[in-house]
């Protein structure tokens, strides 16, 4: 009796081994966790998806936590390439240890892979998110009136000054960001909200250079339009910031 040796072709795309190293070097440990978790999800290993995110959160805290408490002069002595090299090496080790066989099987059965543009896009988004979380924590440490709230399954975070904007209005902004799909189930987002007269100003961390890329800016213009429709009595302003809340590279109003 002849046996059927055909292997069913996988439906879901995954990330290649090299993509993990490149994305981690560009975007940091959060990106490594996201890519590893997406691969585990494609391999139908939900337990490892959850453990990956737990270890990613811990690794991010270990890597970036000390930077909050050392002086600027001391942090300047740390070469810029050290953290990307270390995190990329660890991510490569993990993918070889836990996913190499599954990736090989995926390849052998004709499975598809995410392209490099997707990898770069995820890396840039992760870089902005990492910066946003780091910036928010450091800002809160230096401001006693600062507070943060998290929303949804992904724990999207809004930082705000309690003396500037009521918590109830922050919740309204969170509802609007969720309805417009900015707060989604793909990647945790961080923003800083403030009120200036009758206007809500939302600062969003972005990567340097985006202010000169009209295609990259278009989603923010569309988001601002959608948000404005939800707040007909208030003006909505987006401030795209790089490295610091005071460094607004693009104002959308």
Fold blueprint:
Blueprint lengths: L16 H11 L1 H14 L3 H19 L7 H5 L5 H17 L1 H9 L7 H26 L4 E6 L4 E6 L5 H13 L10 E7 L2 E7 L8 H17 L4 E7 L6 E5 L1
Parallel strand pairs: 2-3, 4-5
Antiparallel strand pairs: 1-2, 3-4, 5-6
Helix pairs in contact: 1-2, 1-5, 1-7, 2-3, 2-5
Protein described:
With 253 residues, the protein is of the alpha/beta class. It has helices at 17-27, 29-42, 46-64, 72-76, 82-98, 100-108, 116-141, 167-179, 214-230, and strands at residues 146-151, 156-161, 190-196, 199-205, 235-241, 248-252. It folds into 2 domains: 17-124, no CATH class; 143-252, Cation efflux protein, cytoplasmic domain (Alpha-Beta Plaits, 2-Layer Sandwich). It is built from 9 helices and 6 strands; from the N terminus they run H-H-H-H-H-H-H-E-E-H-E-E-H-E-E. Strands 1-2-3-4-5-6 form a 6-stranded mixed beta sheet, with helices on both faces. Helix 1 packs antiparallel against helix 2 and helix 2 (29-42) runs antiparallel to helix 3. It is elongated, with a radius of gyration of 20 Å.
